[in-house]
Automatic annotation (TrEMBL):
Keywords: Chaperone, Mitochondrion. This is Complex III assembly factor LYRM7. It comes from Astatotilapia calliptera (Eastern happy). InterPro entries: Complex1_LYR_dom, Complex1_LYR_LYRM7, MZM1/LYRM7. Its main location: mitochondrion. Residues 6-60 form the Complex 1 LYR protein domain. Assembly factor required for Rieske Fe-S protein UQCRFS1 incorporation into the cytochrome b-c1 (CIII) complex. Functions as a chaperone, binding to this subunit within the mitochondrial matrix and stabilizing it prior to its translocation and insertion into the late CIII dimeric intermediate within the mitochondrial inner membrane. Interacts with UQCRFS1.
Length: 104
């Protein structure tokens, strides 16, 4: 795959991630869009293949961090927050067991 296509792919992935992570939060959606666009514009004249690969890797890492680490919270009262985790962040709460399950 060409470098240009990889860069465009990371750009689109970051915007899709932004839409999922900051769903229903217009202020955060706008701030993330501006930041993503600013960073890509800042580096659009980069010609070094090595630096471009590093930037692609950083963009992919940012995508992973956003998907795995960001949780939405909403103020519902002066001293209360409502946690709104995405379905992909929720894990099954399975108790630890030393004995493996028997196959049926």
């Amino acid at each position: 795959m060409g470098t240009r296509l990889k860069v465009l792919g990371v750009f689109k992935t970051l915007h899709r991630t932004r839409m999922a992570v900051f769903k229903d939060d217009d202020r955060a959606l706008t701030a993330a869009r501006l930041k993503i666009n600013e960073e890509f514009r800042k580096n659009k004249n980069e010609t070094s293949e090595e630096n471009i690969q590093k930037l692609i890797k950083m963009g992919s890492d940012v995508d992973i961090v956003l998907r795995q680490s960001v949780v939405q919270m909403e103020h519902v009262a002066e001293d209360k927050l409502l946690l709104r985790p995405r379905n992909d962040l929720l894990l099954e709460n399975v108790p630890y067991c030393d004995k493996p399950r028997e196959k049926s």
